[in-house]
């Protein structure tokens, strides 16, 4: 199911927008009439995404750029704006991840995720700034629950995404006067995506356990996230800025429960000792 919004004549740029969740967002905006730009590292991903997006009838531009390369990101915006004009909605969602305990992680392993997720987000927003429609632009960063829920094997991604969230708040402060809104979406486990494949256990027992941790008792879909992005990109969200919005079936609530309950049990046991 998708909500009906009209983005005809609007330019929507999705960085990291060629696969998975971000491509789902790009598709949703294309379906609602937007002129879409997608950017990522691999030419084959850019070509495939552009071909699919074109089938919705709008104007589509695709460009290769690694978010770690500040100048390449700037060049991508120059080309995109030459094609479709100022940017009305910007989605920044490029990310990299793998499972590794901090004690086993190399310095470069930690750095590469910080570079893609956090420095990359800064590059995208910083290079976009001159091209954002003002007033009126909406910037949407894609974060993750590990930004505010500590998770084992995720020291790199947790630190990077926490930085992304604070960037959201800082830039909402600094750019609000230009009429630019900036928010973060924190997706829960979205089935069929690379992040889901990489980070969720793939056997049935672990899958059932993960599902049980979602209060709504289902994994998320691409449309769940895309619908929130459409809303944040639209005038209906005109007074929302600097917000971190989980779209996770309530999963963030359940994840903090076990440690909190364990601490509560320990405190209760201590308090009840004579
Ligand atoms: C330990 C690892 C590792 C692993 C890589 N490294 N994989 N260390 N365990 N599994 C280390 C390498 O040894 C190297 O350090 C350093 O990381 C860089 O590795 P490269 O392969 O050279 O990096 P690069 O080619 O730039 O690739 C970046 C990447 C890759 C992050 C490693 O996985 C990638 O490009 N991913 C993009 C797609 C992706 O991850 N999508 C999922 C996003 S999901 P040394 O010291 O050896 O040089 C997400 C959250 C989901 O973000 C949340 C779900 C709930
Ligand atoms: P994905 O399919 O791997 O999407 C990542 C996208 O970023 C791809 O288009 C990739 O294309 C691009 N990318 C990666 N590194 C890049 C770089 N250095 N420069 C430019 N583009 C780059 O992953 P996903 O699972 O859909 O995740 C998308 C977003 O949602 C991420 O921000 C992730 O942290 C977040 N998230 C996902 C989940 C989940 O359940 N999947 C949960 C919470 C949060 P190229 O390979 O062509 O560069």
List the helices and strands and how they pair.
Layout: E1 11-15, H1 20-31, E2 35-40, H2 43-54, E3 60-64, H3 70-84, E4 89-92, H4 107-128, E5 138-142, H5 155-175, E6 181-187, H6 194-199, H7 204-212, H8 222-233, E7 244-247, H9 251-255, H10 257-271
Parallel strand pairs: 1-2, 1-4, 2-3, 4-5, 5-6, 6-7
Helix pairs in contact: 1-2, 1-8, 3-4, 4-5
This protein binds hexanoyl-coenzyme A and NADP nicotinamide-adenine-dinucleotide phosphate.
Model description:
A seven-stranded parallel β-sheet has the order 3-2-1-4-5-6-7, sandwiched between helices. The longest helix has 22 residues, at 107-128. With 274 residues, the chain is α/β, with parallel strands linked by helices. The chain has a single domain (11-194, 221-251), classed as NAD(P)-binding Rossmann-like Domain (Rossmann fold, 3-Layer(aba) Sandwich), CATH 3.40.50. Helix 2 (43-54) links the parallel strand 2 and strand 3 (60-64). Helices cover 47% and strands 13% of the residues. The mean pLDDT is 93. The protein is globular.
Total count of strands: 7
Shape summary:
globular
Task: Flag low-confidence runs.
Answer: none
Question: Total number of helical segments?
Answer: 10
Q: N-to-C SSE series?
A: EHEHEHEHEHEHHHEHH
CATH topology: Rossmann fold
Top CATH class: Alpha Beta
Cα gyration radius (Å) = 19 Å
* Mean residue pLDDT: 93
């Amino acid at each position: 199911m998708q909500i009906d919004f009209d983005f005809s004549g609007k330019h929507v740029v999705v960085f990291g927008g060629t696969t998975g969740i971000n491509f789902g967002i790009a598709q949703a905006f294309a379906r609602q009439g937007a002129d879409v730009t997608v950017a990522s590292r691999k030419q084959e991903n850019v070509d495939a995404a552009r071909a699919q997006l074109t089938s919705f009838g709008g104007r589509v531009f695709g460009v290769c750029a690694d978010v770690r390369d500040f100048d390449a990101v700037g060049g991508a915006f120059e080309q995109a704006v030459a094609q479709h004009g100022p940017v009305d909605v910007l989605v920044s969602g490029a990310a990299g991840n793998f499972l590794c305990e901090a004690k086993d992680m190399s310095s470069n392993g930690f750095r590469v995720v910080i570079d893609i997720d956090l420095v990359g987000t800064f590059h995208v927003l910083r290079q976009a700034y001159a091209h954002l429609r003002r007033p009126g632009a909406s910037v949407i960063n894609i974060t993750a629950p590990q930004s505010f829920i500590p998770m084992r094997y995720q020291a790199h991604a947790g630190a990077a995404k926490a930085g992304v969230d604070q960037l959201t708040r800082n830039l909402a402060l600094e750019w609000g006067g230009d009429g630019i809104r900036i928010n973060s979406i924190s997706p829960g486990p979205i089935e069929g995506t690379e992040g889901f494949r990489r980070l969720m256990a793939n056997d049935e027992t672990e899958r059932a356990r993960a599902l049980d941790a979602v209060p709504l008792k289902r994994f998320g879909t691409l449309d769940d996230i895309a619908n929130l992005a459409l809303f944040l990109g639209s005038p209906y969200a005109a007074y929302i800025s600097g917000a971190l919005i989980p779209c996770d079936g309530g999963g963030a609530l359940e994840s903090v429960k076990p440690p909190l309950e364990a601490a509560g049990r320990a405190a209760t046991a201590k308090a009840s000792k004579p």
